[in-house]
Design a protein that fits this description.
By secondary structure, the protein is an alpha+beta fold. It contains 11 helices and 14 strands. The strands form 4 sheets. Strands 4-5-10-6-7 form a 5-stranded antiparallel β-sheet. A 4-stranded mixed β-sheet has the order 13-12-11-14, sandwiched between helices. The longest helix is centred in the C-terminal third of the chain and has 23 residues. The chain binds flavin-adenine dinucleotide.
Length: 273
């Protein structure tokens, strides 16, 4: 199916993008990697009248480490994060980035777009909530910094105003004795996870856990009830409960080993593997 007609506008700065969004009205939308928006437009589940493309705003995809913080530009692609040496200092970020969908989606999709989309099946929300994460947001008002826990209000809903954009994501680096892991269980690569678990913990000495965050993904989705499809595609509530408990247990084990300095490979897991 073809998308509903729309006009296309290329912004050279976030200030220009914000101005365009204001001028073009409530039915205009930001275009980042297009990996959520374009499929929705092609299915006519989204019908924006105008797209404001931010892919030509320079510097928006940078990933930098500074003063104990990692700054991910809103346009950092999942692949950029997967390959980034700066991001590798926080292994849970690599677990997440490397497992999102398939390589095509990872090459285009952006972290800013993922968080702005607030899809309850998205991997970044669960992963980043285990860390101290905030978003730099720019619009017609003064720039503001919003904690991730305050940014996502509901499924597909954030606190962003219509003319407000995500500029960057700031992640505070966990201390040395901290380890984390993100495990997501998937039917196959190009689909969202059935359930996921993200754990970040900090050890005091070798065996005492002094700080921990555990976040579960894809288990709070209020979907349209299609019972048979639900059972087959996402699993029953009982199945998800058992799955997520197993994922948390495994993620905890990996997080502890990483906190003790061990290198452990982890990430998305697929049915039948
Ligand atoms: C086949 C397929 C499988 C996928 N599987 C997964 C998966 O397993 N896990 C996962 O996490 N994701 C998955 N995705 C989604 C993918 O990660 C997308 O990249 C992501 O959801 C949206 O990022 P984007 O840059 O493509 O945003 P876009 O599609 O361009 O935009 C998404 C929304 O965010 C808004 N937006 C974008 N950037 C900004 C910004 N900087 N400021 C304000 N608003 C903005 C747009 O207006 C739009 O409303 C999948 C996508 C596809 C097509």
């Amino acid at each position: 199916m073809y998308a509903h007609p729309f006009s296309y506008h290329r912004a050279k700065s976030l200030a220009e993008a914000s101005k365009l969004l204001r001028q073009l009205g409530e039915e205009s939308r930001v275009l980042a990697g297009g990996q959520s928006l374009i499929p929705l437009m092609k299915m006519r589940l989204a019908r924006p009248t105008a797209l404001v493309d931010i892919n030509f705003v320079s510097g928006l995809g940078d990933i930098q480490s500074h003063n104990g913080e990692l700054r991910l530009g809103a346009l950092a692609r999942h692949t950029d994060i997967e390959m980034s040496e700066a991001a590798a200092a926080i292994p849970i970020l690599h677990d997440c980035a490397a497992g999102i969908a398939d390589v095509q989606v990872r090459n285009q999709g952006t972290i800013g777009g993922s968080l702005a989309e607030a899809d309850p099946g998205g991997d970044w929300g669960a992963t980043l909530l285990t860390l101290e994460t905030s978003l730099e947001c720019a619009g017609s008002q003064e720039e503001r910094s919003i904690k991730l826990e305050d940014f996502i209000k509901d499924a597909y809903t954030t606190v962003l105003a219509h003319d407000e954009l995500v500029r960057g994501i700031i992640v505070k680096k966990p201390p040395r004795s901290s380890g984390g892991a993100y495990l997501a269980f998937k039917r196959s690569a190009p689909v969202y996870a059935t359930a996921s678990a993200a754990v970040q913990l900090t050890l005091d000495g070798k065996d005492i856990c002094k700080d921990i965050r555990v976040v579960l993904g894809c288990v709070g989705l209020t979907a349209i009830r299609a019972k048979r499809a639900e059972d087959e595609l996402r699993g029953t509530a009982d199945y998800k409960r058992a799955l997520v408990a197993a994922l948390v247990k495994r993620a905890l084990g990996i997080a502890v080993r990483r906190a003790r300095g061990e290198r452990v490979e982890a990430g998305h897991e697929y049915v039948g593997r």
